[in-house]
Sequence to fold (181 residues):
Amino acid sequence: MIPEREEDTLVEFLDRLLNKGLVLNADVLISVAGVPLIGLSLKLLAAGIETMLEYGIFEQFDKSTRAWELEHRVSKPALMPGEEAMMKFYGSYSHNQGKTWNYCFIYLTNLRMFGWNKGFNKLLYEVALKDIREITVVTNVCEEKEREELCIKVNNDSCLHVYSQNISEVHSTLISEIHNA
Fold:
């Protein structure tokens, strides 16, 4: 009987490494002229985090990392005192009819409209309702399809284009909030 070896791929090797793990122990003794100078005891553990946790390795690190992440995660933007969110939707925006559209969660409150990047916990743009001069619904072409967008002109002569699946609802809510502000 002749042993046969199947051709393993790199993907199969990595899958096995992550699921089963690999342990290497090495003791190294460095000596010069028969005199030991340096001794090293090395241990290498390589596995997926689930495998490590299954064997009780990195438990404390995992708990503290998850606790820190949960504590520091901001799931929604902080609102100003007296501010109330009227509408939140996923959409995109562009400044001054630029070619770049940025996708984010767009909040419409009783005081302002702003874009929020949830992944980076970052405010992308902000327009105070009192600074809005004019709101029009315009039709533009994006990816070879016509769509309606809001064109919001602000006091500093800049223009913000906003797109949402339900632009008519955003338009009516924005008009209502401007009149209430």
Summary: The mean pLDDT is 86. The CA atoms of residues 53 and 62 lie 8 Å apart.
